[in-house]
Amino acid sequence: MEEAILPNQTSVSYFRLRGLSTNQKVQMTVFAIFLIFYILTLMGNILIVITIIYDRRLHTPMYFFLSNLSFIDVCHSTVTVPKMLVDTWSEKKLISFDACVVQMFFLHLFACTEIFLLTVMAYDRYVAICNPLHYMTVMNWKVCVLLAAALWTGGTIHSVALTSLTIKLPYCGPHEIDNFFCDVPQVIKLACTDTRIIEILIVSNSGLISVVCFVVLVVSYAVILVSLRKRISAGRRKALSTCAAHLTVVTLFLGHCIFIYSRPSTSLPEDKVVSVFFTAVTPLLNPIIYTLRNEDMKNALSKLTRARGTHNEKK
């Protein structure tokens, strides 16, 4: 005799991911591109963290937060990309219910933490550019550690709340997710109950966080740009370069969050394209933007490379 399904108990043990395409040639192309992006993401971001730890000149609040950003990008990319790479070689593309929940939890943990971190980094640049004489007083190490702890705590609370809402819903089929990873909007559409209240909560949670942080960031950089009008040309160029790098990351990252989480859970053709940028492209931008456009990072990398070469010669 089959067991009765209790309220709020799921009868779905796995989900099927549709992926990006069903065409085998397209899937192989996708596999190659994503693999290259993932390897570059790991190498670039890990190199940034190692360089910042190695070079004492980079032991400043700005680079402390940048190392956190690189660490988050490695974790964020690892949550979805390896599973997607494996699925390109599989026809079924299955993911267990528990694995799906874990993926959603860490996806939102790292995404929300990164949103808060980008906001903190904007505040850091605001203090450095608009109030440079008091920068080390305002952004001392105690404040930096407290801010880091706060943004990780905020990301955890957000992720726990959102995942808890999702797993409490009953799931009894269908079990196909129209994406290459599990995310809350796609999963709750498969629930065997009315999810309108949950969708409103998602919009008021994830959507509101994304929009508010984006507005705060835009206002912060607008104030910085106004302040830069009074600066000398050399200092202005360096500050503008830093702000432009931050704005590029912010626009691409928060653009996805606003697009996905600020509307009801309806599928659009653009969702997968936006998700590709969110999971694979944006985490790769940080090594490119913050390394190739930053003289301090380039000098530190050169120093690290020379030290590594000298060490190998001694061996």
Characteristics:
315 residues; mainly alpha; Rhopdopsin 7-helix transmembrane proteins; three-stranded mixed beta sheet; 3% strand; disordered N terminus; olfactory receptor activity; transmembrane helix; transmembrane
Layout: helices, strands, pairs:
Elements: E1 14-17, H1 24-54, H2 61-87, E2 94-96, H3 97-130, H4 135-138, H5 141-167, E3 176-177, H6 184-188, H7 196-228, H8 233-261, H9 271-292, H10 295-314
Helix pairs in contact: 1-2, 1-9, 1-10, 2-3, 2-9, 3-5, 3-7, 3-8, 5-7, 7-8, 8-9
GO cellular component, one term: plasma membrane
Family: Belongs to the G-protein coupled receptor 1 family.
InterPro entries: GPCR_Rhodpsn, GPCR_Rhodpsn_7TM, Olfact_rcpt, Olfactory_Receptors
Write up this protein:
- The structure is a single chain.
- This protein has 315 residues and is mainly alpha-helical.
- It has one domain: Rhodopsin 7-helix transmembrane proteins (Rhopdopsin 7-helix transmembrane proteins).
- Helix content is 74%, strand content 3%.
- It contains ten helices and three strands.
- A three-stranded mixed β-sheet has the order 2-1-3.
- α2 (61-87) packs antiparallel against α3 and α8 packs antiparallel against α9.
- The radius of gyration is 22 Å and the shape is globular.
- The relative contact order is 0.14.
- Residues 1-8 have low confidence and may be disordered.
